[in-house]
Amino acid sequence: MTEASDGKRGLGERPQLAVKASKVDSWFAQEVLPLEPALLKFMRRGWRNESDIRDLCQDVYVEVYETAQREIPLSAKAFTFAVARNVLVDRIRREQIVSIEAVADPEVLGISVDEPGPDRTAIARQDLRRLQAALERLPESWRKAVIMRKVEGLSPREIAIRMGVAERTAFLHLASGLAMLADLFQDDLPNAGSKS
Amino acid sequence: MSEIHADVRTLDVEASAWVIRTDLPEWSEADQAEFENWLNKSARNRVAFLRAHDVWERANRLPALAKPNRGESVRAGWKRLLPFIAGGAALMFAVFASVAGYLYLAQPREAVYVTATGGRETVPLGDGSQIELNTGTVLRVGETGTRRIVKLDKGEAYFSIKHDARRPFQVFAADHVVTDLGTKFEIRSDGASLKVTLLEGRASLETTSAWSKSPPMLLAPGDIAIASPRGISLTKVAAKNLTNELSWRQGTLVFENTTVADAAAELNRYNSRKLIVADEAVGRMKIDASVPTDGVDVFARVAREVIGLHVETHDSEVIISR
Asked: How far apart are CA A121 and CA B137, in angstroms?
C-alpha cells in the first residue's frame, strides 16, 4: 500500500502505468492502436464472420508487439497491415476458404500506408468526440460508473454507495464499461482509415 | 471459462479490471506482483492491457468536455454531463437490445450476466444446468468446491438445474436463499422482495437475514412464494397459469383476466418506450391477450381498434385513455 496516494488524482495529472511503460509499449500505444479503425475495416473486407474480427485484430496486435520487442519497425502502419494481410491469409488457408477479396491490398481499400496524419490538435478534438460518442453507447450503469470514476474521481466504493449496489458490482461495471468503451472507441467510424 | 456471452471479450474485461485497479489507492505490492505476473504471461495480455489503458487515459479529458470555463468546479462540470447521460440512455436501448457481459476476475471467480431492457439471455452452466435471464436482469454465477452459487441482484430468471446432492445449487436474492432439491423454478426480484415459482421437483426457501428465525419453507410444483422482509406468503396455482408466467421465454406475454394497468406495467419492463394508462377506469378493465414482449405498438393498436380506447403515440411513451 502506498501511503502517498489518496485515490483522487489531479485532473491534469495522467495516471502512471503500474509497470513502467517500455519503449515498445509507448510505440504500440502511439503508433499502432490508432490504426485499429482502419484495421477493423481491412479485416471486415476480407473476413465475413463478424464474431472473428476482434480476434483477428488481436492476433495482429500480438504479432506486431512481439516483432517490435526485437526491433521497432520503421513504419508502424505499413508493418501492421503487412501482418494483417498474413494473419488473414493464414486464417483463410486454415479454413480452406477461397476468397479473392481477402487478399486485397490495403491501398485498394483506400487505406493509404504512408499518408501523413492530420494535424495533432485536430486528432485530439476528434478523439474526444469519438470518446464521447462511445460513452453514450455504453449500457447505462456502465456509463454512469465510468463517468463517476473519471469525471467525479469517485472510488468504486463511493460509486457503489451512489448506485446502491455492492462494491464488487460497481467495480465490474467499471471494468466491463472500459472494455466496451475501448471497442466502441476504436470501431464504427464511418470514415475509418480514410483521409478526412 | 468456455462460454462467452458478450459483446465484450473476457480478456478485454480482465485487462480493463487491471487498468482500473492499478489506478486505485489500495494498490499493494502483492497486487503489483500479481499484475506483473499476469502482464508478462503473454503478449496477448500485455496488448489487451495497453489497449484498455490507452482509452482509460484518454478519458482523463472527459472533465474538459463537461467544463468549458477554467474557474468552474468539477461538480458543476459533472452537472453539465447529466443531460448527455440521460440522452445516451435512450440510444443505448436501441443499440443494445441485449447486452450480456461475461466477466471474469481474479478472485473469487464469479461471472456476471447482464441483460438490458427487452433483453433475454440463456446461460448454460458447465454441469448441464441452464439459466434463462429475462429483461433488465443482473445475475452473478460463482462456485466453491462444495456449492454452486447464483446471486440475482435484480430482474427475473428461469432455472433448470441438474441436481447434485454433493454440490447444492443455491440462489441468493433479496435477503433470501432458494436451495434446489432437483428443480425447475423461476425467481423474480426487485432487490427488496422476491417471487419464487416452482415448476418441477422441490426447493427450499429461507431467509438469510439475521433477524428472522423462521424455518426453511419447502416448495412443491405449482407453488408461488412471495418473500419480503415482512415474511413469506404462499399461493398454489394451476399448471396452465404457470405456463403463462413463463411465456416470456418464448418472447411472448400472456395475459388472462389481467387488468390493463397490470398488463401495461408488465410490458413496460421489456420496453424503453412506456405505456401510460392515463385513466383509472381504463386501468381496471380486464383483458385477455397474448402480446410479443416488444409489442407496445401491438398493444396500443388493440387498445384503439378492438377496445376502442383513445391512444396517443409519442417517441418515448404511448398514452392510453378513454
From this structure: 42
Cell numbers at residue B285, please?
378493465
CA distance A176 to chain B (A): 5
What is the second-level CATH architecture of the domain B251-321?
A: 3-Layer(bab) Sandwich (3.55)
Please name the residue of chain A whose CA is at the shortest distance from the CA of residue B36.
A19
Say yes or no: ipTM exceeds 0.85: no
Asked if residue A169 and residue A84 are part of one domain, the reply reads: no
pTM of the shown model: 0.45
Contact between chains at B16 and A182 (C-beta distance less than 8 A): yes
Domain enclosing residue A102, as ranges? 20-115
Cβ–Cβ below 8 Å for B59 and A61: no
- How far apart, in whole angstroms, are the C-alpha atoms of residue A186 and residue A192? 9
Tens of pLDDT, residue by residue over B274-317, are 999 988 888 888 888 788 888 898 888 888 887 788 999 888 89
CB spacing of B85 vs A155 below 8 angstroms: no
DSSP state of A32: I
Mean pLDDT by 10-residue block, N- to C-terminus, for chain A (196 residues)? 40 45 88 92 84 90 93 91 89 63 47 50 73 86 90 87 84 89 76 35
| Nearest-neighbour CA in chain A from B83: distance (Å) | 11
Q: Which residues pair with B179 in a beta bridge?
A: B170, B204
